[in-house]
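On clarity, I found the account of how folds are encoded harder to follow than it need be. For illustration, here is how one protein appears when written out as sequence plus structure tokens:

:::
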Amino acid sequence: MNSIIFPDSLKKGDRIAVISPAGSVEEAQLETGLNLIRVKGYEPVVGKHLYTKFSKGYSYAGTEAERISDMNWALNDADISAVWASRGGYGCQHLLGNLKLSEFKKRPKWYIGYSDNTVIQSYLLKNNFASIHGQTIKTSGFGVTPEGYDLTFDILKGKFPKYSIQNNPFNKSGTVEAELVGGNLALIYALLGTKYSFDFKDKILFIEDIGEKFYALDRMIMSLELAGVFRKIKGLIVGGMTLMEDEKENMNYEESFDEFSYKLIAERISQYDFPVIFGFPNGHIYDNRPLLIGAKISMTVGKKVEVKF
């Protein structure tokens, strides 16, 4: 097994590329995030097609060729020290067959994003590179806690987080140490059976999602079950599940950790004996704290609930 490669820490003045690999964004949606990069002592460098709009059944940030061009520039330009996605949405899958890592492999850099960016992070992990599953530059309608960004900048400086998490009634006790994989459940599901799918064997899996009907959530969990994922993993961490089902049907619609979604997941995995953390603060939620995909973590679930990198 190849060891996972962690990019070098950033120094003050380093340049961070900001690109839109999936959905389109408005300039006003990125002002806060871009300014924060400057305040922290780095230089944001915007991709050529950061604000491009291309409509084809969805508002993409440019054609596939334009988005691939920006991605490959950001990953491989020697003057860029990290790559930060403006947002997720949909469209990262379009890029997978044309990504290039020739220069990236000589000088790896952190890739930061979540949601649709899960597929890019799976691709990077397939090539043995860790990445940051954390807040994008677009702060969304939920906003984001200062800690969500501060902890991400800590990682860029070489300081990895340690989390103590509030206990949750759906948790399953235990202690395990393993490599962390995962991200947005819909994209983990979409990659199943492809060469870009995560390797789940002996891993700790993280999942989060937003805006899914309960039956669609069950379908995705069932697909992981039928694919044997839950027989392979050593632990599970469940993050945000928000805006689930329908506002009229779900009394917890705007809650970060939807209770019925958690109940559904807990019942589906009840036959397995690996430890499970519910309510981890990562996902499409206000308190979105970063995780390191590809890092070895230890998770302890009992009276204390902890995740250490």
User: Anything to note?
Assistant: The chain has a mean pLDDT of 97. The chain has two domains: 15-156, 162-308. Residues 27-39 form the longest helix (13 residues).
